[in-house]
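Bug: token stream looks shifted between consecutive jobs. Job 1:
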Amino acid sequence: MTNIDKWRLYNRDIFSPAQYVDWSWYMTVAAALERRVMLDNETNPIFPNLYVLFVAPAGVGKGMAMDRVGEFLRHWRNPRKKSAVQVTIDQIMSGHPDAVEYLFHLAPDSTTFESLIREMSSAPVPKIENLPDGRTYVHSSMTFILDEFTSIFKLHADDLITFLLTVWSGKNYSRRTKGRGHDWLQNPCLNLFSCTTPSEFAKVLRKEIIGSGILARHVIIYEQVNPRRGIKVPAPDPEQVQARDELLNYVRSLKQLCTVAKYSPEAEEYLAKWYDDPVRVRVNTSHKLDEYYVRKLTHVSKMATVLHFSEPGHEKPISAETVERAIKVLDTAERNMHIPLISGGRNELQIHARHVVAYLQQHPQGATYQDLLVQFITDVTHEELVCILTSLREQRQI
């Protein structure tokens, strides 16, 4: 049984779409790799850190899948013993009490841009000794798990976006402040995993708080409905417990890695042929994804590296099969990636149009115009509802 199969087994009973379950495993692996793994070469490396955003209505199961990532990353404690004085100092400097406790560095669940920078810059910089060439490698790696994506953009949005753009590619980050002097992050690596609803996402888009540049660096995974419902999630059975424990040990083993991954010749050939075919590269023609597709090759490289290290046998070069799988994983996410992005356009009726479509999908027996008017009269006028229905009919959505 592969690790992804074990992950699916362990999460068999949670009420989350299959895509969300799988991506929560990919995020766990990316977070565990930190900046100790890179692709191709040390001069122009690609790091496997990911920005992943789940967008779905309330109740679809975003949080259930996300919680699994936090569960795994918070399972292992830092084995390094510190004095009580040093622990207190680290906790004060970092801003949250568990900062020095976990094997993998996590940001507080709720934070601001200022505290995020302080968390990364003030925490003790991990050191990896005994590299083959005798060097000591230092890095500032952290994972940020955010229940509500839009909450962090309420203050210092411009500075935050600049920061996120910089560290996505692993570049050093520098900022001069009025009160604290100079913020400096050497070898940063941030994994950002967040959730939001279409309505909250639309608010920040319409206010132009975030732009296409930062969103192009995200893999946005949209789901509309929950595949199933239930009144509770049962306790894991022995088979699930065994799968969980094996995965926990595997994730812990990734902490020991410090390596440069390489493509096999067959993988490079496959990737080059794929990249030369625009039809294969771009599976979604929405103009909202233009900037994302400019970076599709980088997304594939990051994803291929994560998939490669998500299973045993990663000592070998990355295979063509792994590259093909990375492309398929991204292609699946991209097919609906434009849906939350179109909610931020000038036409404010479109979000209500999507609600009308969702309502009709929930009532396959049909609904009268009077039913729709009663349902949506607080959001749209009679004339606007007629306009919405006409537009949806012309688009063949109803």
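Job 2, same session, no restart:
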Amino acid sequence: MSEFFGGFALKDDLNLFANLLDSFEITLNQYDVCGFGYGSKRALDYVLNCNSRINRLILLSPAFFNNKDSAFLDSQIEYFSKNKELYLKHFYENIGFDGLYRFNSDVSVRDLRAFFEFSFNEVDLFRICNRGIKIIVFLGGKDKIIDSTNAMEFFKNFGIVYFIKEANHLLRIEK
């Protein structure tokens, strides 16, 4: 059984990516670790701390905020603290949800802070590569959550990056 780490304020979100992974002929197996959005950070941590065999680390729209300053984080936390429900509504719209979904509204300021404060670093990714683990990253060119172009420039040094020009944060083609 592969390990999957879901995105911020979401539940059971792996099924959102089944068609995408199928279209790239990627079938998750017991030696894969996959993360979406904020779950990419947790997937990375899992791989770094795991002594078991891992073949691939698959990052779906990783929460890449390396280029954001503390003022950005402060504004997000302030907005969330003032009206959590409205913040989450806008968040879900910005990631590309167009219908009903099982959301996790049981998130806190602490979760949001962890979402934005994490920063990917080259040392960790080199460590993963040196263990022979293949890194595959999927990014959407029309992502409203992260700067996908900046993320592509960063991740291309560590593995395969699929940049889907017309896709949103959920890696779906926007109409």
